[in-house]
């Protein structure tokens, strides 16, 4: 029995093959197989009117680097918008808002998303002004294109959808969900090379175990990401 489709994500790219791998294995593949999400890859070149299917051009005013052309991107976005209503049209760009867990939580509650992958020096600014509703960066660095960033964002969203993870409470205890890093975790054997699992985790006293985990999460956050505690 399949659950009803929860989300559709349309990804606009000049390199769709670059995204075949991330979406054809593990959790993302299972989510699609279950019918919980539909991921569509759209090749921007298919909407170019240039005889060579070019999708970039020189900058006005000169300068190094090519710019993604406005026409094929707008044509594709408007085609998709005629088919359904989109909650967000997201542009993956180094100068966007840094991706945080809260953003992923919010986007997991939406129905339809468009994610535009940038390339070259970026996209014509008029696309950002008239079509883009949210701009996201995965960090203060530059990649060759937005495809890998789009895959990261997609993964972070889809794993939060009901029915995707075998244990849905797992996502709720991840790092950043409560502005804390996750505590240490252990599995069998209880002792290896003289390195022992903390006794409290073997005690069966679950209220005390939870207290231990909360304390360790706080200690780890104070040491590694004290900025999270300011929030």
Summarize the structure in short:
It contains eight helices and nine strands. By secondary structure, the chain is an alpha/beta fold.
How would you portray this structure in words?
The chain is an alpha/beta fold and 231 residues long. It folds into 2 domains: 7-158, Alpha/beta knot, CATH 3.40.1280; 173-229, tRNA(m1g37)methyltransferase, domain 2 (Trp Operon Repressor, Chain A, Orthogonal Bundle). 32% of the residues lie in helices and 19% in strands. It has helices at 26-33, 70-83, 101-107, 125-130, 147-158, 169-172, 206-224, 226-229, and strands at residues 7-13, 37-43, 56-57, 67-68, 88-98, 112-117, 134-137, 191-192, 195-196. The strands form 3 sheets. It has a 5-stranded parallel sheet, sandwiched between helices. Strands 3-4 form a two-stranded antiparallel ribbon. Strands 8-9 form a two-stranded antiparallel sheet. β8 and β9 (195-196) form a beta hairpin. It starts with 6 loop residues before the first strand and ends with a helix.
């Amino acid at each position: 029995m399949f659950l009803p489709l929860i989300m559709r994500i349309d990804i606009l790219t000049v390199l769709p093959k670059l995204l075949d791998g991330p979406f054809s294995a593990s959790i993302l593949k299972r989510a699609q197989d279950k019918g919980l999400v539909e991921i569509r890859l759209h090749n921007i070149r298919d909407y170019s009117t240039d005889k060579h299917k070019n999708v970039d051009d020189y900058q006005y005013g000169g300068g190094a680097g090519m710019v993604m052309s406005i026409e094929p991107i707008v044509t594709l976005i408007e085609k998709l918008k005629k088919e359904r209503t989109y909650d967000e049209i997201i542009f993956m760009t180094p100068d966007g808002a840094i991706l945080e867990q809260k953003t992923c939580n919010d986007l997991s509650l939406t129905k339809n998303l468009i994610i535009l992958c940038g390339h070259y020096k970026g996209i014509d600014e008029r696309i950002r002004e008239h079509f883009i509703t949210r701009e996201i960066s995965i960090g203060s660095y530059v990649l060759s294109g937005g495809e890998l960033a789009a895959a990261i964002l997609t993964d972070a969203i889809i794993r939060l959808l009901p029915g995707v993870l075998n244990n849905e409470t797992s996502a709720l205890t991840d790092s950043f969900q409560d502005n804390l890093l996750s505590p240490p975790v252990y599995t069998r054997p209880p002792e290896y090379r003289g390195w022992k699992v903390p006794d409290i985790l073997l005690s069966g006293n679950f209220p005390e175990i939870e207290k231990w985990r909360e304390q360790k999460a706080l200690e780890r956050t104070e040491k590694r990401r004290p900025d999270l505690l300011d929030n």
